Amino acid sequence: MKIVELSVILPVRNVGASISEILQYVSVQTKNINFEIIVVDMGSTDNTVLKAIKFIKESKINGFVIQNGDSTVSAALNTGISKANGQYITFVFARRLYQNYLKVYLQTAVETSADIVYGSINEEESIAAQRRLISKSICQLSGADYIKYIINDKIFIDIAAILISSKFITEKQIRFNELCSFGYSEEFVFRCLLEADIISQAPYIITRNHAFELKRGKQRPVGNSIFQHVDANLRIFDIIKTTQRKNTELIDLFEQQKIPQTIMHGIDIILKEGTPYNSIRGFLRVLGYDKLLVTGKMTNKKLKRRIKIWRVIPWMYKPN
Questions:
Q1: R_g of the chain computed on alpha carbons
Q2: Does 246 have pLDDT greater than 70?
Q3: Where are the domains of the chain?
Q4: Which of 10, 76, 128, 236 has its CA 20 to 30 A from that of 59?
């Protein structure tokens, strides 16, 4: 029996009209890889489950469907992880599809014994990653360094375009926060980075395939739930303060840039949804988020200006 190299976890809900095309897309992306597809249904009320089962059976691909009830995406992803048999795991989302990266990622993971593999976003990064592979030298940054670069927009790591060692996340007991609907993916990635020994960049420029992605319909207002992203950041901040006590640069960057930036993003979202300024200010005060709008030497000028306007003349503040 062949070892399953890769488990592809696909959370879905009410995508019956497109599930066959999505699964066909996954099959093409995993050509020449010994993979399994794990479809986790989040309480579909259409024919998503039946069509997924039919496609897997008729296409004779290695895969199965799990009905996870009316659950969050993070809960569905955890269920998929718990049932995965592959040496590595990747996550596919119907509304954010990347193309032709999995084989290169898998090769990179095997060659470097990586805990996490992510892609390149331009030719310069791709060439540098290729040189590191050829020379067998891994210029290894720490997970803390990666988080600094992510916060400063110097590195891009998307949950929909990563490869993770199953052994790594099992041993470290890393899972998605099932009560979190906003910020759960970033929290998961940051936890992985902080725990990983080897983080490798694949020499492949990741590219979205918009033609196959499901288009988003009209979104329901998210309201104050958007601030779950702040709570996710605070959980990571607690880990950083515990495990990176001497890394004052990262602590200050998280406190003075990342957390305030996330709060202001939430403010922008609900302002655009029509929530009154005073209601937002009252909510932030009750939850204590207003006290987290800390600025300092690590806060960029644009964010400082946004926070100052919001604090002093909120009726003049314009959401990004």
A1: 21
A2: yes
A3: 6-205, 223-316
A4: 76
